[in-house]
């Protein structure tokens, strides 16, 4: 009798724990966001204003693009660590095309995207054809591409009419049309925010409402079963890494237009932030898998947190502690939930 | 003859509500080779695991050398001189250690000596290998370089270090070549002369008759009969293994059989499959029967384009068809219901809806966009037609029972209206009710003129459903029987590599 009671008691205790995990998994990220907004609003008047929120959205637009690319690779069961370097490369290439070579705008937009495609193809070649595990392959490519972009610029950032090593000055400037992409306004919102919103929506529709999206998710969920259902898994993975490369180079172009110069190593610090955004996104509304809206949401959580802390005058060099902690918390909730789910079956 | 070395009497074991053993008996004499036979699920492995201390019996007694023993852990079984040579030798071998270290692993793993004399270790290992007459194995090489057969010898040697009283061989010859097997027989007879009791488990009847002294047959977790090998014959033993013919046979089919749909000639995959030829007509169920490891799954996957072929042609409706990827097979009108449905057939984390429409997504989309309503409609249709028991079309499949999962694995092909279905062990882990549903479904398919290849190691089920039966052994088709000719005894004989004597 006593044993039975004890058992029941333990069962209740564990089910309370289970429910808590389930709740955290479903609504944890949203609760956290609401809490952060509420907290900062009570502390600072400058925080909860339209201007500040468009600021936040603009600040997360570049990371969100990067993170969308990572989302696609995670959906097919891969991973892309090279997005940061790819973004840096595309940043300096787009700037150099204008400043060094005085190229027309359409080329300045297309060529960096081509670089993204090439990096994606190289990644998938290593992963799909050669068979190197995704993390290791993209880690190596991250270094290769980072080295390439530093070599290309000889270590200098690129700005209007910069002095060249030959002694003369660069012939070109970043055009106003180009800068508008990063600095302009459209219907009350900054252009980068529009670009981000369009890309998030497009990714969401592709991933959740089209045949392609279904095939991407199933490939990631069970490549073996997908193959036996007639899916060419290799082709699907190729596509995902190419998409990731394209997103990374879009982020690079946007960065150049936003800052007005081609900074080297622009993407390096954003890579981990993008990965964090995707994993925070796992736990949004209990999706349990990478998803476009979750990624946007994850980027927003991190962006708002950093914005609020900036207002609080937290030194910027401490920001990585916050980013890392948010990532760890998101991962913890996701993986504890996954373990529970496995145990139940 | 001598006192029984080991007596296991009235052994019972339950796992949850499933009875694995009931009144199992096993008696072993000193210096004898005693084989245990039984079909899959007869309880052989459970009995062996109880003897080697992996499981504990719920009831029954074990006497060793005349005294009652409790074998609580594998360690205590070993201390009492009971050793086991498993089929998967790699799990018991440490591949980074040398042969000598592997042989004497237990001695230095358990005793707290800090330094090990390599010299002594190697000498001792050499001595034992010499005793087994396999002194060609270099004791100083790493175990990872050994062949499977040599690894087995190392395991046997490890048992001998401790002067084992009983050595259990669990399907030891399954991965071995004939030559290697013969070598193993020689070692076993040597052990026998040393007075070691050998328990021998195998699916290969001829070798059982060659090397055993006695045979115990088990069926459904219980002891059936123990024979002296010299006095027994194969058909008698097979009958004892199968018991009464299991009676859920279906009516013989009377439907029309059309032209050959699939013709396969001389198919090989350079590994397991050797020169297979077969045909399937529309409206026909062809059973492909063989023991575990005969190459049935390999054949199914090769036909479906999931594994590459080295030679052979596949003709569909008379035309030579190149099938390089499952996508080609699906386009050509084939469907595969794979053996490992959770791993290969289904997305178990996903809903029935998503699973059921996946191979034919185009049909459920408008342009690029998925039509969720059409998906749901089809999912409901599958649930009704195949009688899937589930709470909703959104439930993740991992919450469904094995039988219901299997129905979904079949149902996902139905929207494609495929012409040829490959069923690989479709009744594995499926309860009897779902089994009957699946058989009915196969019949419905053939009545509509579809062809089916039914791969199975459940002989009586294959006889019940098939119009013709092909028997596989060791990657080849060794015999074809019509439904009228097929009996369980004959099939089992050919499947175990035997031949009928006329």
UniProtKB/TrEMBL annotation, chain A:
<feature type="transmembrane region" description="Helical">
    <location>
        <begin position="99"/>
        <end position="118"/>
    </location>
</feature>
<feature type="transmembrane region" description="Helical">
    <location>
        <begin position="60"/>
        <end position="79"/>
    </location>
</feature>
<keyword id="KW-1003">Cell membrane</keyword>
<dbReference type="GO" id="GO:0022857">
    <property type="term" value="F:transmembrane transporter activity"/>
</dbReference>
<dbReference type="GO" id="GO:0005886">
    <property type="term" value="C:plasma membrane"/>
</dbReference>
<feature type="transmembrane region" description="Helical">
    <location>
        <begin position="125"/>
        <end position="146"/>
    </location>
</feature>
<keyword id="KW-0812">Transmembrane</keyword>
<dbReference type="InterPro" id="IPR001851">
    <property type="entry name" value="ABC_transp_permease"/>
</dbReference>
<keyword id="KW-1133">Transmembrane helix</keyword>
<feature type="transmembrane region" description="Helical">
    <location>
        <begin position="189"/>
        <end position="207"/>
    </location>
</feature>
<feature type="transmembrane region" description="Helical">
    <location>
        <begin position="292"/>
        <end position="311"/>
    </location>
</feature>
<keyword id="KW-0472">Membrane</keyword>
<feature type="transmembrane region" description="Helical">
    <location>
        <begin position="266"/>
        <end position="285"/>
    </location>
</feature>
<feature type="transmembrane region" description="Helical">
    <location>
        <begin position="27"/>
        <end position="48"/>
    </location>
</feature>
<dbReference type="Pfam" id="PF02653">
    <property type="entry name" value="BPD_transp_2"/>
</dbReference>
<protein>
    <submittedName>
        <fullName>Inner-membrane translocator</fullName>
    </submittedName>
</protein>
<feature type="transmembrane region" description="Helical">
    <location>
        <begin position="317"/>
        <end position="338"/>
    </location>
</feature>
<feature type="transmembrane region" description="Helical">
    <location>
        <begin position="238"/>
        <end position="260"/>
    </location>
</feature>
Automatic annotation (TrEMBL), chain B:
<protein>
    <recommendedName>
        <fullName>Autoinducer 2 import ATP-binding protein LsrA</fullName>
        <ecNumber>7.6.2.13</ecNumber>
    </recommendedName>
</protein>
<comment type="function">
    <text>Part of the ABC transporter complex LsrABCD involved in autoinducer 2 (AI-2) import. Responsible for energy coupling to the transport system.</text>
</comment>
<comment type="subunit">
    <text>The complex is composed of two ATP-binding proteins (LsrA), two transmembrane proteins (LsrC and LsrD) and a solute-binding protein (LsrB).</text>
</comment>
<dbReference type="InterPro" id="IPR027417">
    <property type="entry name" value="P-loop_NTPase"/>
</dbReference>
<feature type="domain" description="ABC transporter">
    <location>
        <begin position="254"/>
        <end position="499"/>
    </location>
</feature>
<dbReference type="InterPro" id="IPR050107">
    <property type="entry name" value="ABC_carbohydrate_import_ATPase"/>
</dbReference>
<dbReference type="GO" id="GO:0005524">
    <property type="term" value="F:ATP binding"/>
</dbReference>
<dbReference type="InterPro" id="IPR017871">
    <property type="entry name" value="ABC_transporter-like_CS"/>
</dbReference>
<dbReference type="GO" id="GO:0016887">
    <property type="term" value="F:ATP hydrolysis activity"/>
</dbReference>
<dbReference type="InterPro" id="IPR003593">
    <property type="entry name" value="AAA+_ATPase"/>
</dbReference>
<feature type="domain" description="ABC transporter">
    <location>
        <begin position="6"/>
        <end position="245"/>
    </location>
</feature>
<dbReference type="Pfam" id="PF00005">
    <property type="entry name" value="ABC_tran"/>
</dbReference>
<keyword id="KW-0067">ATP-binding</keyword>
<keyword id="KW-0547">Nucleotide-binding</keyword>
<comment type="similarity">
    <text>Belongs to the ABC transporter superfamily. AI-2 autoinducer porter (TC 3.A.1.2.8) family.</text>
</comment>
<dbReference type="GO" id="GO:0005886">
    <property type="term" value="C:plasma membrane"/>
</dbReference>
<dbReference type="InterPro" id="IPR003439">
    <property type="entry name" value="ABC_transporter-like_ATP-bd"/>
</dbReference>
